Amino acid sequence: MSSQTSHSGNILVVDDSPDNVFLIKTILEEEGYIINTAENGFSALAQLQALPCDLVLLDLMMPGMDGYEVTRRIRGEMQLPQYIPILLITAHDTPNVARGLDLGADDFIRKPVTVDELLARVRSLLRLKHSMDERDEIARQREDFVSRLTHDLRTPLVAADRMLTLFQQGALGTLSPQMQEAIVIMGRSNSNLLSMVNTLLEVYRFEAGRKTLAFQPVDLSRLLKEVAGELTPLAQPKGLVINLDFDDTANPSTITGDRLELHRLFTNLIGNAIKFTESGSVSIRLKNPTLSNSFPTDKITDYITVEIADTGPGIPATEQTILFERFRQGSHKISGSGLGLYLSRRIIEAHHGKIIANSELGKGSVFIVSLPIKQ
Questions:
Q1: Which has the minimum average pLDDT: 15-29, 52-66, 242-256, 269-283?
Q2: What are the beta bridge partners of residue 11?
Q3: What is residue 340's predicted lDDT score, i.e. its pLDDT?
Q4: What pLDDT is stored for residue 108 in this prediction?
Q5: What DSSP character marks residue 60?
Q6: Residue 42's closest CA among 9, 16, 81, 22?
Q7: Distance between CA atoms of 54 and 34, rounded to whole angstroms?
Q8: Which of 51, 175, 250, 325 has its CA 20 to 30 A from that of 118?
Q9: The listed CATH number (2.50.20.10, 3.30.565.10, 3.40.50.2300, 3.30.230.10) that belongs to domain 216-372
Q10: How many angstroms separate the CA atoms of 205 and 309, rounded?
Q11: What is the pLDDT of residue 327?
């Protein structure tokens, strides 16, 4: 017997052979591990759902549900709060251990097991588990900190925005032209910062699973006209034309979604098109899904498509692959925080939709959003 010091950890041993279970249980309990057992795959999954453990020792060949299927379900279907390593136990004549590893198992050991090898592999996988738990905890603390920070930052920014508005309205006295100009610049900068903080807060709400969507019927035609009207003042100083091109056959244009989040989505996409376009136009197209092949699917009639096209400088091919990743800024001189398109993607995914971008340098960009009509 290996003369290791006692270890801690809850281990689930899954094997249909009582002799194998007894042997492994005896070896591991002598090392100080807490052992639970299951005689088949169904029992193992039920135990994991009720009380997750630190490691699963899983026999590959079992009647009813083999180790391959148990591994697939643990990795693919079960929503476990933390990662649980899987050590496969296989006979020497089992030909396809690689299949189990491809399904998500972390390591394997062959029967008959030796004490030293079993303990070494268990210690190795528990170290992996400990490292991943520490990483997840650090990430959770970081996200919680950023979420709290952005939430706290909103209060002074909102207060500053209101005070600057009062100055601009002359409520606190007449301002000289120079002061008026300075207040306008300060107000614009404060608004940009507040917008960034709001975006960051929304991103972390999505990532922390704290975002609750209120699904209801939403008329996309009306919503897009509303957003276009709100953003027209941004396009007018540049002389940009905002074109609304709604397919008459796109009937109904009503989908099931969260109106506030969809408003945020299209405000961001259309606002980006206006921001990055210096001349020409921004076109908003609402299309009947049967007329578009942008998102091939067996149920294309269940989707409706919105296209936002601009005549801006276009996006380099090297940047198009990372457009929707968090904190990925473009090379354009007025690129923002790199969160807007990431948040847009999260909103679309929450609605079970898709987004792609087609762009060519010097010829503008088209962002294509596909949303299901019903959730």
A1: 242-256
A2: 35, 55
A3: 82
A4: 92
A5: S
A6: 16
A7: 10
A8: 51
A9: 3.30.565.10
A10: 29
A11: 55
